[in-house]
Design brief:
Order of helices and strands: EEEEEEEEEEEEEEEEEEEEEEEEEE
Number of strands: 26
Radius of gyration: 18 Å
Number of helices: 0
Strand content: over 45%
Largest sheet: 5 strands, mixed
Strand order of the largest sheet: 15-16-17-18-22
Structural class: mainly beta
Length: about 270
C-alpha cells in the first residue's frame, strides 16, 4: 500500500510504500499534489518530497479537493469534510455530516461542496453561509461525483442511471435531475473541459458512453450520443487530456485514447 508519482516527460517514477491505503490524489498546480494516505493527507512536491501533512482524521481519507486556487485542501472522512490551510495540520473549517463519505466534489465557483455517501445520499453545503441540503433515495452508495467547468452541473453515480443535477441559480433543492442510462454499473465519469455539458462515463461491462448531459428538461432520461469500442474489461478510470482527447483505462491494464474533433460535437 502506498502511492506513486510518474513524470510523463521522462518516465521518472517515485514509489512510496507507506503501509497506508491511498484512495485519492489531487493536483493543486504543476508543483504540488495532495495524496490520501490512511487517515492523513500528504502534500508533496512534484518530485515526491513531502511539504506538509494533515493531522489524522476520524477514519481513512476517502477523497480530496483543492479550494481557493490551491490555498485550502478539503478532505473527506467519516463524519465530516474538513478544510486545511497550507501547512496547517489542524482543520480551519469543518462541514459535519454523520456518515461515511465516499466522494467529494467542489464546484469551480466554490459556492458548493458536495459529498457522496455510503448511506446512498449526496450531502451539500453552501460555502457562503454553511446551509445544508441532503438528496437521498439513491438505490446504491454514491461513490463518484464531478462538477463540470461551469460549476452549474453535478454528475453522480449511485444507481444504474447517472444523475446530473442543476446547480445554477439557488441550487438543486426541489428540482429533478437529468437521468442518463447506459451502464448496469457505473465505474467512472469525467466531464469534457469547457462549458458545453459533454460527459463521458464508463461501466463495469467495459462500455464507454458520451453524453450531451445537460440537454432537455429536468427528469428527462437521456440516451448516449455515442458509444466507444467496448472492451471486455471494466472501465477503471476516465480522463480528458484536453478537450479533444479522452483517455480510458481498464481493469486488465489496457489504456486507450480517443480523439474527438471539436468542443461542440461528440
Amino acid at each position: 500500500m502506498g502511492y506513486a508519482l510518474w513524470r510523463r516527460s521522462d518516465g521518472r517514477t517515485v514509489v512510496r510504500e507507506s503501509g497506508a491505503w491511498s484512495s485519492s490524489a489531487a493536483w493543486a498546480d504543476d508543483e504540488r499534489v495532495a495524496v490520501a494516505s490512511g487517515r492523513k493527507a500528504l502534500v508533496l512536491e512534484a518530485d515526491g518530497e513531502e511539504l506538509w501533512r494533515t493531522e489524522p482524521a476520524a477514519s481513512t481519507v476517502t477523497d480530496l479537493a483543492w479550494l481557493r486556487r490551491g490555498r485550502r485542501l478539503a478532505l473527506a472522512a467519516y463524519g465530516a469534510v474538513r478544510g486545511h490551510e497550507r501547512r496547517t495540520a489542524q482543520p480551519v473549517v469543518t462541514y459535519p455530516y454523520i456518515g461515511s463519505h465516499m466522494a467529494l466534489a467542489v464546484a469551480p465557483t466554490e459556492r458548493w461542496i458536495c459529498s457522496g455517501n455510503q448511506d446512498a445520499s449526496i450531502h451539500i453545503w453552501r460555502t457562503r453561509d454553511g446551509s445544508e441540503l441532503t438528496m437521498s433515495g439513491y438505490p446504491e452508495k454514491v461513490s463518484r461525483l464531478a462538477f463540470d467547468d461551469t460549476g452549474f452541473w453535478l454528475a453522480a453515480d449511485g444507481a444504474p442511471d447517472l444523475t446530473v443535477w442543476d446547480f445554477s441559480g439557488k441550487g438543486p433543492a426541489g428540482t429533478a435531475p437529468r437521468q442518463l442510462r447506459c451502464h448496469e454499473t457505473i465505474t467512472a465519469l469525467a466531464w469534457r473541459p469547457g462549458p458545453a455539458g459533454h460527459l463521458a462515463s464508463g461501466g463495469h461491462d467495459g462500455t464507454v458512453a458520451l453524453w450531451y448531459a445537460t440537454a432537455g428538461q429536468p427528469a428527462n432520461r437521456l440516451r448516449p450520443v455515442r458509444r466507444l469500442d467496448d472492451v471486455d474489461s471494466a472501465v477503471a478510470a476516465l480522463a480528458w487530456a484536453g478537450p479533444h482527447l479522452l483517455i480510458t483505462a481498464h481493469r486488465d491494464g489496457r489504456v486507450r485514447a480517443y480523439g474527438l474533433p471539436s468542443r461542440t460535437t461528440l
